[in-house]
Amino acid sequence: MSDTGATWHELFANLGIFRDAILAGGLAGALLGFLGVHVVLRRMVFASSAIAQAAALGVALSFWLPAVIDPLGHAAGHAAGPGGHVIPSPLFQPVLWAVAASLLATLVFIANPTRLHLTRESILGFVFLASGAGAVIIGDRITQDAHDLTAILFGSAVVVQTTDLYLIGAATVILLGGHLVLWRALLFVGYDPLGAEVQGMPVRALNGFLFVSVGLAVALCTRALGALPVFAFSVLPAMTALALTSRIGIVFVLATVFGAFSGVAGFAVSFRGELPVGATETGMAVALLTAALAWRYVAARRDLRRARQTATSEAKGSNDA
Amino acid sequence: MTRPVPLADSTTSRAAPSARAPLPAGEALLEARALTVGYDGIPILPALTLTVGAGELWAVIGPNGAGKSTFVRTALGLTPPVAGEIARRPGLRLAYVPQQSALDTIFPVSVLDFVLMGLQGTGNVTLTSPGAYLGRARAALAEAGAEPLARRQLRDLSGGQRQRVLMARALATDADLIFLDEPTAALDAAAELEVLALIQRLRDRRGAAVVMVTHLVEDGLERADHALLLDRDHRVAFAATATAMRSAPDFEHIYARFVGRGTAR
């Protein structure tokens, strides 16, 4: 890399090394971008943040518990060097714990807290804070793996494991396939739940599918990319698409494209500028939204000006008459 | 300012096609027998008995918080009764038209997409090929005088236009029994007349019964031929014809002063 940062040529020259991370970013952006339309429209933006935080806690637990159960074996693994850090059992695979913690958080989200005289937002706040505090406290207990945890929380992982890429790829195909079939049904259920239920729509099953798919997608992507870009991908591309068009079908397409673009372009820019990956991917999504809002503002001003001009000329015409 | 679009004349316009024969007038569609409604096994209203027949227009009246929504949810089969029973005609098709304010304006839903939702349900959950249903949706919009609005966003319409679109979805459902939640709330006089004409059309087309929930007591009694008076605070659940309702002691006691007829003034 040069003193002023890596060049695009270096990125292409090392594409084999970074290919998995770029693909993972693009797939995660596409999947979360699509799901994000439902997330934003149903006003459950904070849910994906809380679920991502829960996934991070799950990963932290997967590092910490083996050290508690078998401290000598764990320390010996670290002493053997980077290649010696062996996860003692398939039960402690970080991705399993991320998925389990995310689905648990999703169940909390599905539960109706009104009987406790609490709002869903407050329960989500509880999940977010409990998970965040838990991840930091546990991270403090597992200093050897703290860099892994930081990568998960803030998305600074430059390289993505092939297994994670395959999992994200499979989730993208399966979940996006399901959502392409069910998007109208999910829209109806989200927009007019009572009307949908009366007409015999399986409201609970559809909502369950949506929440579980958000939970799974967030868990798998958080393990690979980190909580920050995952939260960003599940909110910002959908907001950008909603700012640009009112045609719901186009909204889904644009959100998917913007999410994928943020993941791929964000990684490339982070390489070029030697910037943290997750934050740069998030920044790319922020930039797209900012541009869309600016365009929307300019278009609204232009429409208002035209409307005023039309009204003025009409008034003038009637006065002349 | 938007001009009201005239309702299509059912004798000359395309009507949303109905696949089934009209229901015999008065045939029982929904029967509540000693029905007690409430939450978690706790009754909120006294037991009530009523029969909604084909072609009838019912007004469910009562103040805010009277238990109207709980009754409607129970009648629709979404909440179990606390006691008694509720029987529906076998194969009864239900539809629910929400209050305008219940629809979140953040959703970018076009008028046509909204009416297409009326064609989703049991046996057609996904609506993966909406093109096959566009004809029915457009016919329903035409019948409601809302076809020119098909490509507009529902959230961008005036209150009267939006209510016509809601009614178009009810027409598209081809339902036997339609529940309307506050269908004339916040409408001007012209828009209200249009909505009432559409309610009449729902009844005429295939003998559908309409149950209209309203907190506007006088309006409900004027338009409906049957009424159900609910009042949780006064422990009242009383069904009668609209005419009989006006002279019922419970009604006189609770509402006469509001409708300018009464003893309580």
How would you sum up this structure, described in words?
The complex is a heterodimer of chains A (321) and B (265). Chain A is an all-alpha fold and 321 residues long. Chain A has one domain (8-320): ABC transporter involved in vitamin B12 uptake, BtuC, CATH 1.10.3470.10. Helix content of chain A is 81%, strand content 0%. Chain A is built from 14 helices and no strands. In chain A, helix 10 crosses helix 11 (227-233). Chain A starts with 7 loop residues before the first helix and ends with a helix. Chain B is 31% helix and 22% strand. Chain B has 8 helices and 11 strands. Chain B has helices at residues 68-75, 111-117, 134-143, 159-173, 189-206, 217-223, 242-246, 249-259, and strands at residues 28-36, 38-39, 42-43, 48-53, 57-61, 83-88, 94-97, 177-181, 209-214, 226-231, 236-241. In chain B, the strands form 3 sheets. A 6-stranded mixed β-sheet of chain B has the order 7-8-9-5-10-11, with helices on both faces. In chain B, strands 4-1-6 form a 3-stranded antiparallel β-sheet, with no helix packed on it. In chain B, helix 3 packs across helix 4 (159-173) and helix 4 (159-173) runs parallel beside helix 5. The radius of gyration of chain B is 19 Å and the shape is globular. Residues 1-14 and 260-265 of chain B have low confidence and may be disordered. The interface between A and B is medium-sized, with 28 and 31 residues.
